Structure formats: structure tokens, C-alpha cells
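User: Predict the complex.
Assistant: Input components as received:
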Amino acid sequence: MEKKKTMVKDIDRTIYDIKDKVHPSYEVKEGLTPEIVEEISKTKNDPKWMHDFRLKSLEIYNNLKVPDWGPSLDGLNMNDIVTYIRPDTPMRGNWAQVPDDIKNTFERLGIPEAERKSLAGVGAQYDSEVVYHNVREEVRRQGVVYTDMESAIRDPQYGSMVRDHFMKLVPPTDHKFAALHGAVWSGGSFVYVPPHVKVEIPLQSYFRLNAPGAGQFEHTLIILGEGADLHFIEGCSAPKYNVANLHAGCVELYVAKNAHLRYSTIENWSKNMYNLNTKRALVEEGGNMEWVSGSFGSHVSYLYPMSILNGENSRMEFTGITFAGKGQNLDTGAKVVHAAPHTYSDISTKSISKDGGTCTYRSSVVILPQAYGCKSSVNCESLMLDDRSRSDTIPVMDIQNDDVDVGHEAKIGRISDDAIFYLMSRGMSEEDARAMIVTGFAEPIAKELPVEYAVEMNNLIKLEMEGAIG
Amino acid sequence: MDVALRNVNMLPVRTWNRLGINDTGLQEKFSDPAPYRGKALAGSLPEGVSLTKKPFPVSDAETGMGKDTADFVESHSNCGVSLCAAAGTKAEKPVVLNYEISEKNPTVIDCNEITAEEGSEITVVMGYRSEGDVPGFHGGLTKLYAGKGAVIHLMQIQLLGDGCTHFDNVGAFAEEGGKIDIVQAELGGKHAFSGVKTRLGGTKSQLNMNAIYLGDHQRSIDINYIAQHTGRKTSSNINVSGALLDEGQKTFRGTIDFVRGAKQAVGHENEYNLLFSPKVRNRTAPLILCQEEDVDGQHAASTGRIDAARLFYLMSRGLSEAEAKKLIIEAQFHPVIDRIPDMELKKEVSDFVKGRLSQLESMG
């Protein structure tokens, strides 16, 4: 008798796929030329240093090659991408003033409700610009700055801080799409938490790309003072179009001595999106960087948040889940460089591939000669739900001194018949047993997410089981 | 002659170029290969095994170090044998091949083929040695074919001196129920490269791969093992363990590749590295590639210093720190050395390891 397959439904994307009518107040032509970059710089009223930075980045972009090691980017043609598209509204500090169609989009995604219930501040970006930014008064009184990047660059108090940190951690020379970001970036959030300030409830930025054939290049810069504490949440989505969209954002996180930053992302781009995002954190002495990352959307993703453990006793933890379905090639993972003694890293990931989707776990752990007394642990598990899909595990460890303790474990496989049998022998139906196993597989990640995101994740992975043991 | 081989020990799937692990190059200047002076085959062939001129059964055999390296050996070889174990025979004793680098044989390039016909079993022991630290070059290509239900045991023991650069390139294929059992000991040489690719094509075919390495002084070791599962119910088991001392460097790439259709295949890989000096460098890329749902793939790696409790226990029994460390390294190598079927060779390998460890400065 032929084995019946476990059926796992595709992610229900209905609310993400609702398209707004595109009526920008301004957009540049498709493609990438010095004139277009000049035009973006002019329309954004960049200071001179930023104008020069953009043009230099474009030059670097033109001299760098497309990566030769990841998923194919053949479907991405920069000549077809609109790099800047401004919605027909200035940035607001009040939801009521945001135009109805844009507001309704964010309402459907639950952002204003989340702000009321459980967030200290919200930023909402629509295409290339931030349309709403607000932070609770009590948080503002603590000295916390949470604003859009453009305002931050021109801010008399924080402008120089932004200049000192902007693309210093991810220089445009890092790779081709970092250079692209440097040339055409727009939007994003700036956060500064003063020393010893603990932000009790999370801040959240939500990025929505509505226009077809457009790119979103937001820049997120977070600077924590000594002993500061913050949880930052990032969400992204877009409706599905038949043309390629591009997201090449950049996230730079500075975690000072004894500070703690948790950075959670739920990425749910539509399946025509090329998600080539770069995230990096610099962690100083005793600092603690936690990444929680859920990758569900996009056609192709290259996403590997990196932590540089620069100060003694600093640490990072990365917890990630990736779910690739039909037409998706999601190449995700993490990178860590141990650059100081007694640093600690822990990477734990899960991936699920189904219906012809490809998941690749890719990581690197580098321990430099001076980083003695370090510990690193990597654990990745992959679940294959059918034999049309693909799941690859590509970790690298480069250890350059002997005083280390490095462990790595990887597992790949299917839902075990023994586990199903055991649960059924305890009185469960087979459907319930399968559902429990898949939910249990994702559970260690789900529990790291804020409650409302865990619920979203469970909605995303609508698991519906049927089948019988062969 | 000068050799500059590229695309050596390539990862089957590339990763970030800046890590420098996607592949390596092999550049060396050495004496032109002259006909090998001496006899590689020690003693007589066991019953059932013969030298053969038959073409190797697999025309597209891929190897661990890659095509450039294989082509180089095929066009420059100055020694090597083609062996065939007749169907249904089980060789009682091993075939022993000794390749020695000396002043009269400074360049050894051996090209070997081992075919085990249906239901046969053969053991081949290859030893690579040199006269002290005489400068020399060794490059080897060995192809293995295990027919239906056949078993090939291959032991490659590399005990070269510090004047030699060495590579061993292996390509293996197993038919239904065939078994490939490989032991590699990379214990000497200045630069050592080794690659083994096994295609488990037949249902229930198996690979058992056990390797040890010792990277002392300024030695570099570069390894690439690939177990490609294409047949149903195939199994692979790869175990690598070794020690890095002084300024030793090692790169290990290990891939388990489950191709679509390899239902119920099982692939396990374990790596255990002991580090003894702040100047060592250990690089590892353990890949699992999977296009099949019904498989079980696992990889585990552990890298670090000797467990302090073990060291303390041995020292509390009266051993010095250096003696305790040597004992632990020897103990780590023993499960592999014990697989060598010849008592004399077993002792030679054990003494070689002891000899190298006794010269070490970084043993505390």
C-alpha cells in the first residue's frame, strides 16, 4: 500500500496579498544610473556627505560581482526595478492622519492594534518612505530616540551620531547588494537607547512594499548605550505580483558594554520578492545580542544576521526558523566572529521544506587567534515533508586557537513513523500526532517570539494533517 | 616539473568565498616523474586476486579531489596496479602495496584500480613512506568498484617525512549490497591532500570511512570526503579524528549527499578534533545535501582541548602532563590503527605516531 503523504497547507497569504492602488506622489525611473541616484539624493535633501556616499556606493556596486555561491538571481534585473517610490503622504505621528488606503493596509496587518496593546513605539514604512512613527511618551521621557532615518540624519543632536555609525558595520564594499543599499537606501528607523535605560516593552517597525516592480531599501540603525536594554521587532510583507520585487535592507546594531538587544524578525514577503538583506551587530564587553528570525516569504532569500563579538564576555544567541514552500529558495542562517576572549555563541535553527521548496541553512563560526576561552554551539535541524523539495546544510567553522569548545550538530529527516506510532499508542489520532510533531518541531522557535508574533507564526504555518502510516 | 592544480577538494555546493574553504589549489615543483624503481607489490597476490587489464567498470567515476587532479595522475603516473578479485572469492590475506619516496624515486605518481567482482572480498593496504626527510612528491589516484555483494577494504597509510608533499585521490562505486570500507591515516608529509568520493549507487550498498590525521610542526592537511547516496537503503558512516599541534593546520570538508530516490538512506558523519597549541588552525565544513524525504542524515563535530577531567585523572595516576596528552592522542587513534590487518604495519604506524609525538614542543 502506498504511503499517504502528510499534507501541510501552504501559508495563507490572503491578508498580505491585498494590493492597494498605486498612486505615488513621486517615483524615479526603473534602473540604476548615477542620474537616478542623484535624483534620489536631491529629492531626499541629503546632506553633502550622504550625497557623496551614495555616488561612491554606486561606483562600488558597479565593480562588484553578483554572488556565485547562493540561489540564482537570474530573475532579478536591476534595469526593471524602481529604486525609489514615495507614497502620497508625509510622515505622521498620528494614525488618523495617515491616508485611508495605507492605514487600512496596516490595520489589516494588525499594526495599530499591536501598538495600542503591547508596543512602546511603532514605525511603519510604505514603499520607500516611513508614513508613521510614534513612541510612547514615557519611553520618550527616558531619553529613548525612535524615529525615521531621514529625520535622524538631519537631527542637530543625533545627526553626527548617525554619520559616525551609518554603514560603518556593513560597508558598501561588503557585497554587491550592500553597495546597492548604500546608493539608493531610503526609509528605515533610528533607535538610540541611553546608557542604563531599560525599555520594558518592544519597539516595532513594519515594512510594507506595495508597488509592483519596486525595491525597498530601508536602513535600520540601533545604538544602545552602556547597560541599555531593548527588544526591537521588525515585520515585513508585500502583496504578490508577477514581476520581481527587491528588498535590500540593511540593519546595523551597536550593543555597548553590558547592553542587551533582542532583535526579532518575521519576514513574510510575497513569493515574487528577492530578499537580499544584510544585518550585523557589534557587541562590546559583556553585551548580549539575541536574534530571533522567522523566514516564511520571498521567492529568493539571502539572509545571515552576523554578530561580531568584539568585547570580552560578550555573547550572541540566534534562533531561527525557515519555511520554504512552492517556488521558494530560502538561503538563511547566521554568522558569528569571536574577536575577543571568553565570548559565547549559540546558533539554533529549524527548517521545513515542502512542495518543491528549497531551504538552505548556511552559517560560519570564526574564532580569531586572540579569542581564547570561547564557546560556540551550532544546532540545525531540517524536516523534509516530501521528495520534491530540497534541504541543504552548509555550516563552516574556522577555529584559530586551541582554547575553545566548539560543538556542531546537524540532523535531517522526515517525520518518524516510530514517533507517530508512539503517540498513537497513547491514544492520539494519526492526524493529531503528525500535527503535534510538526508543531513541536517549530515550538522552540515559536516560544522565543512575542506572543502576538507566535500567534501569527502559527497562523502562517496552517498545518492540516491527514494520512496513514504506510 | 611544476604543477599547479586548481579546483582541488571542491565543496559540492559553494559557500562564502571569503572563508577560503570552497576549494584549494595545489602548487608544487618536483623532479620529473621517472619510471618507478623498485617493486610496489609486497609478496604474492592472494588466491582469487589477479592483475587485470580489463577497463575499469565505471567510465564516469568521480573522485574526491576532483577531475584536474585525477587527469594529472592519469597522464603522469609512473607506477600503480589494476587488481581484480574474481567473483565469489574471498582473499585470505591483504594485498600490500608499498610506495617509497627516496633519492632514486623522488617523484611517485601511482594510479591504481581495484575491482571486486560479485560476491568477492579484497583487502588492499597501501603504504606511503620516505627515506627520512628527503624531498619528494607523491600523487595517487585509486578507483574502487565493489560489484554486487562485494567488499573492498582499502587502507591508505601515509607515513611520509617532512620533505614530501602528498595527495591521495579516491573515487569509489558500490553496486547492490556492495561495501566500501576505507581507512586513511594522514600522519606525515609537509602538505597532505586527500579526497574520497563514494557513489552508493546500488540498493543497500555501504560506505565505512575511518580517518585519522596528525598535524604537527607547520604541516597542513586538506581533506574532502563525499558520500553520495543514489541507491535505496544505502548507508554511509564517516568518522574523522585527529590532533593539531604546534602550527598545524587542517581543513576538513565532509558531505553527505542524498540524491532524489535514495529512499531510506542513512548517512552519519562524526568529527573529533583535539587542539594543543594556540597557533593551530582548524577549519571544518560538514555539509548535508538532501533531495529525498525518507532519509536520516546526521552530523556531529566537536573541537577543543583535551577534557580537563581526563587529563587530571591520568595525571593523578602518576603521568606527566606531556605523557598524559600523548596517551590520549594515541588512544584516540587506536580504533583506526586496530583496523590494520598486518601486525607489523600496525606496530610501524603506532611507532610513527609515538615518534612524532616525542619530538613535540607543545605538549606542555
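The interface with chain B takes residues 68-69, 362, 364, 366, 369, 372, 382, 384-387, 389-414 of chain A (CB under 8 Å).
Let me know if you want any component modeled separately.
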